[in-house]
Design brief:
A hairpin with a 2-residue loop joins strand 12 and strand 13. Helix 3 runs parallel beside helix 4. This protein is α/β, with parallel strands linked by helices. The chain has 2 domains: about 130 residues, 3-Layer(aba) Sandwich (Cytidine Deaminase, domain 2), CATH 3.40.140.10; about 220 residues, Dihydrofolate Reductase, subunit A. The strands form 4 sheets. The protein has a 9-stranded mixed sheet, with helices on both faces. It has a 5-stranded mixed sheet with strand order 2-1-3-4-5. About 30% of the residues lie in helices and about 25% in strands. The chain is built from 12 helices and 18 strands. The two termini are about 30 Å apart. The chain is globular, with a radius of gyration of 22 Å.
Amino acid sequence: MALALALGRRGAGRVWPNPNVGCVIVKAGRILARARTADGGRPHAEAQALALAGEAARGATAYVTLEPCAHHGRTPPCADALIAAGIARVVVAAGDSDPRVAGRGLERLRAAGIAVETGLMEAQARADLAGFLSRVERGRPRVMLKLATSLDGRIATASGESRWITGPAARARVHAMRARHDAVMIGGGTARADDPMLTVRGMGAVPQPVRIVVSRRLDLPPEGALAASAGTIPLWLCHDAALPEAACAPWRARGARLIPCAVEGGQIDMSSALSALAEAGLTRVFCEGGGGLAASLLGADLVDDLALFQAGLAIGAEGTPALDAMGLSLLAEAPRFALDRCEAVGPDVLSLWRRD
């Protein structure tokens, strides 16, 4: 199962809207086949492993990180494929809470006379599949917020200079984090100020995450890098649902996908936005700010994981803070996170936090 989980993790950021599942088929103490869900979500891990094992799969054991599907989509159910292949035993790490499956896959296997065991390394499996499970169970993607700041929590000087607060090693780690998410998200202010590409670079030929910009009025640079690449690298724009078509049409013509969202208090309601992104299939979103978007997500309790890169320099109170005002008057109202781990990344420090 540990090998199946390791295989599944390789699919993070590559298989949405499907879960990043791993499967290992074993017989008489020998591994016959191993596979993960393919990029784009098809074929599933079980189908690929069974194809590799062939007739040798008859009488074997399949270790699968998530309950095999039991519904017909673009491909037949994996539970049926395991039965047809003559698998004798299936060991499943975690159950699938998708209502189209939710125990039906296990029932179908047992009804066919297959021995089924569940719960092996379940906690690790649920952690690896947290994005998919969040989309199914909470109706929104799992969100990681990344902040890169000075020691005193600043992201730019008073003049707006921000490149680079952290060093090359930290920036390389950020690209690796992007690659493990379905999408990278920024606010309109950051898009206007930096016009970033938001792509994964320096890691070879990898699938690029969806690039999301939250901009109520779609007042973004019309000739910038994001606009120019919208037809070749996915660009999704979360905007005010009441925005007139005249404001939307130019971006649609460039190839961007428009996501209409509710507005509350003059800002995009991020609960509405994340629900729409889940509906579109996203399971894990990597938010890179800026301060307004970060504060909105934190204030609405929508941040699951926090990655804080801190550089060993101080900028001072006149610099730009990492977070905009959140309107808190009591410490009890502040979102609180629990430290997961802390490590040196080049000359900088990375601390990873989870919602307490």
